[in-house]
Write a structure and sequence with these properties.
217 residues, alpha/beta, Rossmann fold, five-stranded parallel sheet, 8 helices, 51% helix, binds adenosine-5'-triphosphate, binds magnesium ion
Amino acid sequence: MRIDPSSFRPPSRATFVAFEGINGCGKTTLMKALSACLRQRSVPVVETREPGGTPLGEELRRLLLEWPGEKKSARSELLLFAAGRAEHVDKVIRPALARGEWVLCDRFMHSSVAFQGYGRGIDLDLVSQANDFAVQGTLPDLVVLIDIDPLEAQRRIARRQGSDKDSFEAEDLAFHRRIRDGFLECARSSPVPFLVLNGSRSPDELRAEAAEALSLA
Ligand SMILES: Nc1ncnc2c1ncn2[C@@H]1O[C@H](COP(=O)(O)OP(=O)(O)OP(=O)(O)O)[C@@H](O)[C@H]1O
Ligand SMILES: [Mg+2]
């Protein structure tokens, strides 16, 4: 299923693609496959992730995903993600785009809408303000959203080798259903173009569909 593909024109210039979806939907797998496609064409590409992508961001990632202390307040969580995102945009994403490189980012601002807005229940306008402050206008050219049933995603996470559950993976199924619906709502309402892929298809099918949308096929 594609939503609003007409508003995305694969640019000849550097392109910022964000990969979104619930935990275990296949973001990292698809991002690595597309990165390999780009490298084969000798296109310079930066692969990065959120939370993370910078030394400060990776520290924040540890605090956000693995911190063993008491559960954070939803507002603290939102602001920690936003702090890491500001650092990431300033130090990695914007400079790479300015150098003419593609940026493939494993999660970005719509994860805050889905997780902190739809998941934790923070007012969506406040999440949007935090995102706007963090990204300062650096928006993805395309968001690739991998949509999948949370039960299937949980089965994949359980099968994946050596994966301890992070703070979000440990949340109940209802939480992940809200996240899924939140991402789909983003795809419907965001001004950023979304490519929505059916995550139950094979990795090869997903790569082919995303590569076609990005004119890499
Ligand atoms: N299209 C697919 N079909 C079946 N299995 C898949 C598919 N894509 C990825 N997988 C497998 O599912 C598991 C989760 O994939 P992956 O790690 O890419 O997801 P993710 O969205 O990056 O997860 P996380 O949110 O935890 O980082 C992995 O074991 C991966 O090999
Ligand atoms: Mg991943």
